[in-house]
From TrEMBL:
<dbReference type="GO" id="GO:0002098">
    <property type="term" value="P:tRNA wobble uridine modification"/>
</dbReference>
<dbReference type="Pfam" id="PF21680">
    <property type="entry name" value="GIDA_C_1st"/>
</dbReference>
<dbReference type="GO" id="GO:0030488">
    <property type="term" value="P:tRNA methylation"/>
</dbReference>
<dbReference type="InterPro" id="IPR036188">
    <property type="entry name" value="FAD/NAD-bd_sf"/>
</dbReference>
<keyword id="KW-0274">FAD</keyword>
<dbReference type="InterPro" id="IPR040131">
    <property type="entry name" value="MnmG_N"/>
</dbReference>
<feature type="domain" description="tRNA uridine 5-carboxymethylaminomethyl modification enzyme C-terminal N-terninal subdomain">
    <location>
        <begin position="498"/>
        <end position="586"/>
    </location>
</feature>
<feature type="domain" description="MnmG N-terminal">
    <location>
        <begin position="38"/>
        <end position="435"/>
    </location>
</feature>
<dbReference type="GO" id="GO:0050660">
    <property type="term" value="F:flavin adenine dinucleotide binding"/>
</dbReference>
<dbReference type="InterPro" id="IPR049312">
    <property type="entry name" value="GIDA_C_N"/>
</dbReference>
<dbReference type="InterPro" id="IPR002218">
    <property type="entry name" value="MnmG-rel"/>
</dbReference>
<dbReference type="GO" id="GO:0005829">
    <property type="term" value="C:cytosol"/>
</dbReference>
<protein>
    <submittedName>
        <fullName>Protein MTO1 homolog, mitochondrial isoform X3</fullName>
    </submittedName>
</protein>
<comment type="similarity">
    <text>Belongs to the MnmG family.</text>
</comment>
<dbReference type="InterPro" id="IPR020595">
    <property type="entry name" value="MnmG-rel_CS"/>
</dbReference>
<dbReference type="InterPro" id="IPR004416">
    <property type="entry name" value="MnmG"/>
</dbReference>
<dbReference type="Pfam" id="PF01134">
    <property type="entry name" value="GIDA"/>
</dbReference>
Amino acid sequence: MFSLRNCGLWVAASLTKKRLTLARFSGDSAAPLATKFDVIVIGGGHAGTEAAAAAARCGSRTLLLTHRVDTIGQMSCNPSFGGIGKGHLMREVDALDGLCSRICDQSGVHYKVLNRRKGPAVWGLRAQIDRKLYKQNMQKEILNTPLLTVQEGAVEDLILTEPEPEYTGKCRVSGVVLADGSTVHAESVVLTTGTFLRGVIVIGLEMHPAGRLGDQPSIGLAHTLEKLGFVVGRLKTGTPPRIAKESINFSILNKQTPDNPSIPFSFISETVWIKPEDQLPCYLTHTNPKVDEIVLENLHLNSHIKETTRGPRYCPSIESKVLRFPNRLHQVWLEPEGMDSDLIYPQGLSVTLPAELQEKMITCIKGLEKAKMIQPGYGVQYDYLDPRQITPSLETHLVQRLFFAGQINGTTGYEEAAAQGVIAGINASLRVKRKPPFVVSRTEGYIGVLIDDLTTLGTNEPYRMFTSRAEFRLSLRPDNADSRLTFRGYKEVGCVSQQRYERASWMKSSLEEGISVLKSIEFSSSKWKKLIPEASISIGKSLPLRALDVLKYEEVDMKLLATAVPAPLKKYITCRELAERLKIEATTNKGSSARRSSPTAKRLRLFDSQRCVFVL
C-alpha cells in the first residue's frame, strides 16, 4: 500500500457551525462512524448528492464526505433548474430514481415549460427554485437515506494499492486520508469536487483562494491527481450580483407568469407543491449603451476577463457579451431567490468588475435605477480534469475504482452534474459487486450524449447540454425518459424503487392500450368535423380517419376527443400525464420514425448538431 501524502491540504471550511442532531451524521472528522465503507463520495454538491444516494439505493454502504453538512444541496449560482436540454437530463435522472427532480417539485416558486411552440422533443421543463427550501429538502432526503452516512471532513489524499491485474490502470484506490491523518477505507471512491480544485474567486483585480464564496478550495487533492499523471486544465465561470427586491421598480418591466397548470419534473409527482396563483413572477429588462460604456472603460480593472482560461460560451459574463456582441441590448431576467427571500438574481448579468462599478452598472438598467446591491458578482477559476481520462462508466483509466462526476469533468450546470453523479454512484456500487458497468448510450438518453461527448471528444470550455447535441432527439423526449431508463435501472442495477417501477409499468401498459383503442376508433372525416368542429379537418374528401390521426391536429387533445367519443376514451383523461403522453405519441410516433430513417434527415441532423456546438 502507498499513499500520496504531503501534497498540500484541502482546507475545510469552518466546522464550528451548529450541527444537525441526526444519528447518521458525525461532525468530527477524526472519529468517523466507521472506517470501512463500500463507496466514498467526496463532495456534497449536485453531483455528490446524486452519487451518494444512487450508490446507497444500489445497496452499497456509502459515506458522503463534505466540508459542511449545512451546505449540502446548496445552489451556488442561479436559483433555477431545467431548461432546453437540461430539463431532459433532469427527467432522465428522475427515471433512475434520482433526487433533484423530486426536490424541485417540493421547492419551486415558478414552473414553466420552455419551447412550447415547438415539438415535444425540444420542450424544456424549467423552474425557479427557493434556495433555502431546496437545501432543506435535499438535506432531509440525504440525511434519511438508508445505508448512507454523512460526515463532515476535509480530504487531503487518496489511499492507493496495487492494481487488479484483470483491469487497466496503474493503481487502485482503496480509501481516503482526512486532514488530521486518519483514514477511511472503501472499495470505490467518487470525486465530485465542483469548482473547488485550486479554486480562486475574482472580483476586479482582487483574487482569493476559494471554491465558492465563503468556502476554502481543495489544494491537496489537486496536487495528488496531478502527481498521479492526470491531465489537468483550467476553466472559469462567474455569477451575477444579488439585488434587494424592494429597491427594484417592477411596475415598468415585462412580467412573466408561470404555467397553469404547472408540470412537475418527477414522474412520480402528481403535481408540484404550490398552486400556480401562489407562485412568484419573473421580470425581464435589458442592458443599454451605458452598460457597454462602463464595461469597456474599465476592462483594465478586471483580471478575470483578461484571463486566457476558457469560460462558459453559452452563459457568458456581461463583459464577454459586450466584447463579442458590441452595440446590442442583452436580456436580464430578474428571478426570485425564494418565497421569503429579499434577494433578486439578475440572470444574464454575470460580472467580475470591482464592486463599486458593478453597482454603478446596475443602476443604469431600466427598473434598477434605485437598486441596492447586496452581494457583488464574482468569477471563479478552477482546475478540471480532461474527461477523456474516464470511461463511459465514469471510472478513470489511470486509477481503478476511482470515479469522477460533475464540474471536475469540465461541465457546467446543476443538471449536468446531477446526471453524472447518478451514473457515477451506480457504477461505483456495481464495481464493488464486480458487476458489469451501467452505460447509457447516445441512442438511449441525453445522459448518454453528455458522457459520450465528454469521454470521446473532451472539452476545453465548460460543457453545457443542448437538444441539438442529440442526434436522436426526436425519440429522446422528456415525456418518455421513464420508458427508456426506469426498467433498465430496476432490472439491471436495482437503483429504482418498487413504487417507481410499478408506476412506469402502469404508464407503459396504459399507453399501449390507449394507442390501440385510438387506432380502433374510425369515422369519416365529415363525421369527425361534426363531432369536433374546432379541428381543422378537411372534408373535401370524406376519407376514414382514426381517432389517433385526429389527435394529431393541434386543436385536439384527449379531453376534446373523449368528449366527442366518451365511452371508450373517458378513462384516459382521468390522469393528466397519461392524456398528455397519448397526445405526444399521436403527434410524434409515426412521422418521426420515417424522418429518422431518411438519409437527408441524418445529414441535416449531423449539420445541426455541429452548428450548435461551433456557432451558437
